[in-house]
Design brief:
- About 40% of the residues lie in helices and about 20% in strands.
- The chain has about 220 residues and is an alpha/beta fold.
- Strands 3-2-1-4-6-5-7 form a 7-stranded mixed sheet, sandwiched between helices.
């Protein structure tokens, strides 16, 4: 893996649900196989972007899906294999412990369904870290969920993923007396959860493909 460690090594952590059961809210639009293929494509694109970020020392996927194991081998990243899905908060807690045990100074937690994430978004997140214990957080477009959460150090933080996690994570940071910085990068804020999200994604993909053809 062409990632260089830093004086304060940061690990990217990407929890991945079993692909065939992902995005159930889009079940009326896409088959389980189509949804699995879509998330797989998103994840592959994300890993390619993350591997361009020199400040990341490691990329860690957390999943129980054998298809994700194949992705790990393809990209040469780490895997924390779950015997069965244990829930997002448990998954990221275990990942934080693993990263800390291997000397990580911080972790950046990202969901797998960010189709517009770019390496520069991650670089800018990391640039907001300070020497003090801190949290850098980016919400979803509705300012409800947490689409990117950067913790330094990676321990002594109780994850609050679920409804209203953005505000709960901000409150957790305050309770832990961590410096909390809120950022809003469009490439991180767009995730794909609803039919409206799907339509926005389709329009954006059509525009991008049209622009490519015009060049």
């Amino acid at each position: 893996m062409n990632l260089s460690s830093t004086d304060r090594p940061i690990w990217a952590v990407v929890p991945v649900k079993p692909l065939l059961t992902s995005k159930n809210r889009l079940a009326h639009l896409l088959s389980p196989e189509a949804r699995a293929a879509m998330i797989g494509d998103f994840l592959a694109r994300m890993l390619g972007e993350l591997q361009q970020v020199e400040a990341l020392a490691e990329i860690l996927l957390v999943s129980s899906d054998p298809a994700v194991e194949a992705m790990v081998r393809r990209f040469g990243v780490r895997l924390l294999a779950e015997e069965r899905p244990l829930g997002l908060n448990t998954a990221v807690t275990q990942a934080a412990r693993l990263a800390a045990a291997h000397g990580a100074a911080g972790i950046l937690i990202l969901p797998a369904d960010l189709p517009f994430l770019q390496a520069v978004d991650v670089q800018q997140m990391i640039a907001h870290l300070t020497p003090e214990p801190g949290v850098v957080i980016c919400s979803d477009g509705r300012e409800d969920g947490t689409n990117a959460l950067l913790l330094s150090p990676p321990e002594e933080f109780t994850f609050q993923y679920g409804p209203g996690s953005f505000h709960k994570h901000c409150q957790e940071a305050a309770a832990r007396k961590r410096v909390c910085k809120i950022v809003d990068f469009p490439g991180l804020q767009f995730d794909l959860d609803t039919e409206n999200d799907w339509q926005v994604y389709q329009r954006a993909r059509y525009q991008l493909s049209g622009a490519a053809c015009n060049h």
